[in-house]
Design goal:
The chain is mostly helical. The protein has 3 helices and no strands.
Length: 78
């Protein structure tokens, strides 16, 4: 149980960091989106290595999915 809580905290905390250091909420939100996209690429890259796929393609596929979700969030006012 503690491991799951720690994993959830560690995976979401980098996305929260811009809000701690930037006073402009809109800029912090955009930086937060960028951090999330970079994290998605890293996770996709590692997934590609582990699964035998081309790592860069897997990373870019994860970025495409993440960018689509961020685009939807921004379009809805997020």
């Amino acid at each position: 149980m503690l491991g799951l809580c720690l994993l959830s905290f560690l995976s979401t905390f980098p996305v929260v960091i811009p809000f701690l250091f930037l006073s402009d909420a809109r800029l912090a939100l955009r930086v937060s989106y960028a951090v999330a996209i970079v994290m998605l690429f890293c996770c996709g890259y590692v997934f590609g290595i582990r699964s035998g796929l081309r790592p860069s393609v897997a990373g870019l596929a994860m970025v495409a999915v993440g960018s689509t979700l961020v685009g939807i969030a921004v379009a809805l006012g997020g």
